[in-house]
Amino acid sequence: MPNEGRQIVIPGQILGEIPAFKPGRGTFVENKKIYAERLGVLNIQDNFIDIIPLKGRYEPIVDDFVIGVVEEASTSNWMVDINAPYPALLHVHEVPWEIEFADTEKYLNTGDAILAKVLSVDESKKLQITLNDRNLFKLKGGHIIEFEPSVYRRIMGKQYSMIEIIQKYTRCRIKVGKNGRIWIDGDAEGIAKVLQAISKIESEAATFGLTDRIEELLKKDAKDVR
Amino acid sequence: MKSDIELITSEGKRLDGRGPEDIRKIKIEAGVLHRADGSCYMEWGGNKVLVAVYGPREAVPRHTQNPLRAIVQARYNMAAFSVEDRKRPGPDRRSVEISKVISEALEKVILTEQFPRATVNVNIEVLDAEAGTRCAGLTAAGVALIDAGIPMRDIPVAIAAGKIGGQVVLDLGKEEDNFGDADLPIAISPRTGEVLLLQMDGHLTVDEFNQAFDLAVKGCHAVSEIQKKAVMHKYQAIAAEVQE
Lengths: 226, 244
Prior knowledge:
The complex is a heterodimer of chains A (226) and B (244).
Chain A: E1 8-9, E2 14-17, E3 22-23, E4 27-30, E5 33-36, E6 40-45, E7 48-53, E8 65-73, E9 77-81, E10 88-91, H1 104-107, E11 113-121, E12 127-130, E13 137-139, E14 143-146, H2 152-156, H3 161-170, E15 173-177, E16 181-185, H4 188-203, H5 210-220
Parallel strand pairs in A: 3-7, 10-12
Antiparallel strand pairs in A: 1-6, 2-5, 4-5, 6-7, 8-9, 8-11, 9-10, 11-12, 11-13, 14-16, 15-16
Helix pairs in contact in A: 3-4, 3-5, 4-5
Chain B: E1 26-30, E2 38-44, E3 47-58, E4 71-78, H1 93-107, E5 118-128, H2 133-147, E6 157-164, E7 167-170, H3 174-179, E8 182-189, E9 194-198, E10 201-202, H4 206-243
Parallel strand pairs in B: 4-5
Antiparallel strand pairs in B: 1-2, 2-3, 3-5, 6-7, 6-8, 8-9, 8-10
């Protein structure tokens, strides 16, 4: 196989047995055998069998940076869509502003975008997010595009190499949320190039040497590079 | 229903030239729709089925939510042009029943406990019907669910066995379904052999039933291989293309 090392697995596929291997993310155990629970790429490290999903919804994890869109402003909180199966709650105590009772709409209203962090996820998947941290703020202007959340790691690249390349060649301000949303601010030409790069990364996520190919793609018609 | 067509010859040759244990030609393509979270297009003999999967997402209205697990809402629908006489559009007794049994079959393979309060929507659209659409729909739904990245214990697969002209055969065609003696669609989880769906129309003796059941299970495993190949093909093709 040309792409050995990146083995694609499908649900129900047997991956190993319990004493020799340990079950990690994306797997389940039945009769001491480890099976894949979803479509993804097999990753074995220190006898831990993990599956890096190829597709699927964003599953919120505490401390993830996410890009949210405000759905509704209530008297003491906002409901925010973070692209997860459930809406997230943003309480007035979790924003950096002093807010008078029922004054929430002045600060954030329906349709506003924010860069937030997942604060808590409880048993029944009730989500809370926060804006109370450095690097968290309301996103003014710009565009939001969505991508397959499972390719987040490829979009960032090793030590942010990929995202730095994209920023370098397109001269756009880019914020990437773990929940499959990217916020871009820049000129139309730059945004078009970011879109092109992201869709290439998405479709070729399960391959090697992606960073080089993206650099090549962006280099082709780059006029001036910062 | 009686007719004077000979559905199967004494040598075991059927109307379309198949033997008693032959399956019609199956073609599966995953990920054909861009707006859906997962999708699958399937051709099974003369059946054409399109499946779109959405979710997991929050279940609405809220009283349908289960605080412990996700619910699975499958919707089986036949297009007005899928049969010879125009089918009156909209849900009818038959499609409501099929939607229910397919929902319950899928609920058993999806790891619903990972998504409390959520729903997984599976839309099965029958574009062209030629007997065995519920089996084709369920099989295609399995592929669409993988394509949507939904965690599952196994890939569900279905096929029908039946009795025509006194003989037990696999995968009934249109005439065989209409003029045959019995139809037995089943769905299984091929890894464990658990039965996910079992219905029967017509009459079978206990022996015939067991024979048909075993034949259908065998057929399910054969279809399962085609299913797996289709998924692997789609995702490995992308990898191979770039390597060249």
